[in-house]
Amino acid sequence: MERIYLDHAATSPIHPQVISRMMKVMETQYGNPSSIHSFGRETRQILDDTRQALADSIQAKPNNIILTSGGTEADNLAVIGYAEKNKHLGKHIITTSIEHHAILHSCQELEKRGFEVTYLSVDETGLISIEDLREELREDTTLVTIMFGNNEVGTIQPIREIGEILTGHQAAFHTDAVQAYGVENLNVQELKVDMLSVSAHKINGPKGIGFLYVRDGIQLSQLAFGGEQERKRRAGTENVPAIAGFCEAVKISLENPNDKRKLYQGFKDVFIEKLKNNDISFELNGSLDKSLPHVLNLSFPGTNVEAMLVNLDLAGIAVSSGSACTAGSIDPSHVLVAMFGKNSERLTNSIRFSFGLNNTREQVEKAAEETAKVVARLRR
User: Fold this and answer.
1) Three-state DSSP class for 27?
2) In angstroms, rounded to a whole number, what is the distance separating the alpha carbons of residues 172 and 89?
3) CB neighbours (10 Å) of residue 19?
4) Contact between 341 and 157 (Cβ < 8 Å)
5) 291, 348 in Cβ contact below 8 A?
6) Residues 84, 170: one domain?
7) Which residues of the chain are under the pLDDT cut of 70?
8) CA 194, CA 77: separation in Å to the nearest integer?
């Protein structure tokens, strides 16, 4: 039986070129980047080259890039690091109710420390209201953190417009771009963001490596103490093989971004068309217009999410019910709760399909056909 992986929003397979690059580094370039001898200088060059590639990918400067252990650390450093360093300016933070838990839990931790957090609501497509943001913005607001594209339903927020609104205000603007990086055009100058989080394992790179973009002049409190790595902003000996793999993954992701977006959007259309052809009733969670091209979240009335996941897995189709970071949780998706309310049936019958490397139109068609069979069987 062919197994079809449609859970790329949770994590993605490592590209063969990335594996090859990492293996070579592990075999031959094992020096500590902080060492002054030739072995150290070789690995330091890998760090410098990667930092340049990461900066170029978002139109930033190499010194603006802090290498981290992934998106969660990048989010934590941006939210907690900035809030603590700048609390003399105020203790009010604005975020949304549909952020990744790396943001939400960071905000909850700050609330325990005496900060005040405003959680913006969203409409049924997952969009915030710009007017709500304007109304909640205060003189003592020091940070606004709003994700670029949602990891569960794919909704893209009006980041550029938010950046314009915050121009001239003391509040720093952070966006979690973990799910958008590699599929959307991210130019930090045009977006007017002060901080931006990214993770490698969403773009066919290794797990355990990511970065935080920090605009010139933005000061952060350290969360890790020890050495003076990352210009004294993040202590710890660098994970050089993963960093080298990250660099390779970024280069590959930038080769044909427009073609990739078109391909994934086409997969969405194919999937939806197949369901309609099989007379399967479903509802879209989110939007097709203002959405990440690779994320498709659908509600199937009359079904149960656990039964759907098990039956699809038995059919060789790997999908999810939402965020991978809450897998195994009995709690409903906080994103769907924010969009539809805590009593909505969508909380118990929604499935996320997400596309990526190695997926073909034939696979997507087969997955849609199998999904239709499972839905029809569960409704009988």
Assistant:
1) helix
2) 11
3) 15
4) no
5) no
6) yes
7) 323-330
8) 13
178: number of Cβ within 10 Å:
28
Residue 43 sits at φ, ψ, to 5 deg, of -75, -30
Give pLDDT tens digits for 328-348. 555 789 999 999 999 999 999
Pick from 78, 151, 147: nearest CA to 110: 78
- Give SS3 for 95: strand
pLDDT of residue 323: 58
Q: Under 8 Å CB-to-CB from 284, ≥6 apart: which residues?
A: 272, 296, 297, 298, 299
- From the list 272, 325, 357, 376, the catalytic residue is 325
234: helix, coil or strand?
coil
* Whether 191 and 303 share a structural domain: no
Task: Please say whether the beta carbons of 136 and 164 come within 8 A.
Answer: no
Residue with tokens 């189709």: 317
Pick the last residue of a domain from 253, 273, 291: 253
Please state whether the predicted TM-score (pTM) of the whole model is above 0.85.
Answer: yes
Q: How far is CA 21 from the centre of its chain?
A: 24
- N residues, the chain: 380
Domain extent, residue 25, equals 16-253
DSSP line for 294-351: TEEEEE-TT--HHHHHHHHHHTTEE-BSS-GGGTT--SPPHHHHHHH-TT-GGGGTEE
pLDDT for residue 294:
98
Q: Is 325 a catalytic residue?
A: yes
Sign of CA dihedral 230, 236, 238, 243: negative
User: How far, in Å, CA of 349 to CA of 329, rounded?
Assistant: 15
Looking at the structure of the chain, the number of domains it has is 2
Distance, in Å, from the CA atom of 14 to the CA atom of 224, rounded to the nearest integer, reads: 28
- Record the tokens describing residue 145, joined without a space: 């953190």
